[in-house]
Amino acid sequence: MKIRSVQTQVIDIPFDDGGKKKPITPTTWNSLEMVLIRVEDTDGNVGWGEAFGYFVSAATKSVVDTLLKPLLEGTEVESIPEWSRMIQHKLHIFGRYGITLFAISGVDIALWDLWAKRNKAPLYTLLGNGERKSLTTYASLVGYNDRDVATAQCRKALADGYIDVKVHETDIDIIAACHDAIASVNMSARLAIDVNCSWSTLQAREYISRLEAMAQIAWLEEPIFPPEDFALLSGLRNHGVALGAGENWCTEQQFRSAIEQGAVDYVQPSVTKVGGITEFLKVVDTAVAHQTTILPHSPYFGPGFLATLHLANACSNVKDVEYLYVQPAAELFKYDSIRKGNVFTINDRPGIGLEPDEAVINRFKVS
Which of 66, 103, 136, 351 has the fewest CB atoms in 10 Å of its CB? Predict the structure, then answer.
């Protein structure tokens, strides 16, 4: 396929989460910021991608506009995996991880959507042999740093039909209160905890011991910094609490190293950060070879979330899809057409299956 144009747009949609304070992010997190990427071929087909943009959208957009766009427009892409390897090699001087890979991820997603549309096929049918078109999601709460708000949101998520809940709290007493809150409502519900690398090694050891005594813990995510200290993570495993990490790892190579060192029980690639669908599929293959389950990181509302649904459907070792439990001012995609409660059912339209709402783009575009 010959690429005619690559266009980027920063979209920033405010959301309400019922809380007041976000202790983990650099500043108050109250909007869904994404770099939306539109790739068109010379036949007029359009593919949509999403590059990670929370707090860094201007930087990510700049990499797409100044580095990727000139290298892609006017060229033939016969194999997306080959294009991915070529572009990673060509741009490696700018860093193998972080912003460079975020930008590549977004363009890669758009190319896969475009390729599936050219083949008039749903994306998942081109990625694997999955048959789970209906996918159950868990509620991923933002960080509140407030016991009353956090526990109320846990109960609200269960009332909305979710079975599993993930909290982004660092205070072990608030975490314990959230566990007790869900246990009081549903003895089958599970609580996952993402502390975003906030605990010291000593704290992690102490708190894991406390979590072990809680019957309904699903997993603990990114307990310590740096998240790529695989040896230290390995030492925290096998103490009664499953560990997960990977949202801040890029490329299959980092995941391979983590898996081979026994760092975690679950790996958590993020399709908008890891290198796109191409690199995500490599992670899947490596995880399958080592009998490791994938829990995708997907707190997104754009093409990144839809791509994750297709990957989860196509790959049998991908489970427990994450859904950010907030109320956005508008939805970029009409999710009501594929969502019933906490279950998303992929349609059979070509590509990622939905087209973005131009009215929402125009209303919330930043640049």
Answer: 66
Q: In this structure, what CATH number is given to the domain that contains residue 305?
A: 3.20.20.120
Structure tokens at 117: 């549309």
Q: Domain ends where: 121, 147, 172?
A: 121
Q: Quote the domain boundaries for residue 325.
A: 125-356
Do 84 and 233 have their domain in common? Answer: no
* pTM check: above 0.70: yes
Strand 134-140, strand 190-194: pairing = unpaired
In a domain, 306, yes or no: yes
Q: Are residues 350 and 225 in the same domain?
A: yes
| 3-state SS, residue 107 | helix
Count of CA atoms in the C-beta half-sphere (13 A) of 213: 8
Distance (Å) of CA 282 to CA 97, 254, 271, 287: 16, 11, 12, 9
Does residue 103 sit in the same domain as residue 208?
no
Write out the chain's pLDDT in tens, 367 residues.
999 999 999 999 999 887 665 555 666 788 999 999 999 999 999 999 999 999 999 999 999 999 999 999 999 999 999 999 999 999 999 999 999 999 999 999 999 999 999 999 999 999 987 777 899 999 999 999 999 999 999 999 999 999 999 999 999 999 999 999 999 999 999 999 999 999 999 999 999 999 999 999 999 999 999 999 999 999 999 999 999 999 999 999 999 999 999 999 999 999 999 999 999 999 999 999 999 999 999 999 999 999 999 999 999 999 889 999 999 999 999 999 999 999 999 999 999 999 999 999 999 999 6
CATH number, position 75 = 3.30.390.10
Of 121, 149, 168, the residue at which a domain comes to its end is 121
DSSP state of 275: T
Residue 365 lies in a domain: no
